[in-house]
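dumping this here so i dont lose it again. seq + smiles for pyridoxal-5'-phosphate
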Amino acid sequence: MNATVPIVWLSGRFLPLADAAISPLDRGFLFADAVYEVIPVYAGRPFLFKEHLARLDRSLNAIGMPMPMATNDWADVIRTLVDKNKISDGMVYLHVSRGADVIRNHAINERLSPTIFLMTSALAPMDPTIQQQGVAALTLPDQRWARCDIKSTSLLPNILAKSTAARAQALEAILLDNGLLREGSSSSVLMAKDNVLWAPPYTPEILPGTTRDLMLRLAGELNITVTIAPITEHALRHADEIMLCFATRGVLPVTQLDGQPIGSGVPGPLWQHLYSAFDAYRQRIAHTAFNT
Ligand SMILES: Cc1ncc(COP(=O)(O)O)c(C=O)c1O
């Protein structure tokens, strides 16, 4: 198979991306009636596979859809897709929509078969200047709905926020509501103050992040004190460190918020400890067998 032609998996078949077609009446296309996952791949091995499938299950459950495939079948499809596309470091995008109806109808037709789509992409290694300098973020009001704990493909407010940040030369939009930190437009946000790592509690307005959960676990192993508590905008602006956690990039240090330096304005020690622990963990896991 030619690795330059991306191969995708669509509802039961591996096929070239150019041949993958869905109905315009697919509810994912018409209503964003769909949920998704992005699973990192390191050294050709899916990373935190069980955690991503558990979150998929949670999202499906929240929108009243059953899990459409068994864990072993997901694993087989993902493994084969990663092999066919010769992905070493990259990601698998996995999307489950409620399926295509015969008319456009808001009310759910329970008899539809889900549309399942998976594709892979390679990811370039982290730019070393990010490690040296950190990234900029922009705060914006959270304009999303009340169930951001569901990983829905309905991402209009997220993409608008991300684009506003990009226009301001910031990598991420950090979303605030009522003077409190929620999360990034596509990331979880952690804060460090006086050697304590802070994370906001999970509420229906925040997506449970697989990378954040891993970072908090690694922080525990490093004997870093972790506090799960609401983080005010004031505390965020006066943090020693801010970090973004996402599956595709791991953990990134934010060194500028709304154009102002955070802490000393360079990546801080807690980020460095967590990043080293994450990198070591990732390398250790990448060379073990992929068991489901
Ligand atoms: C809104 C939002 N929050 C948090 C995350 C981080 O989740 P994960 O670490 O599982 O990628 C994402 C990832 O896409 C996201 O879109």
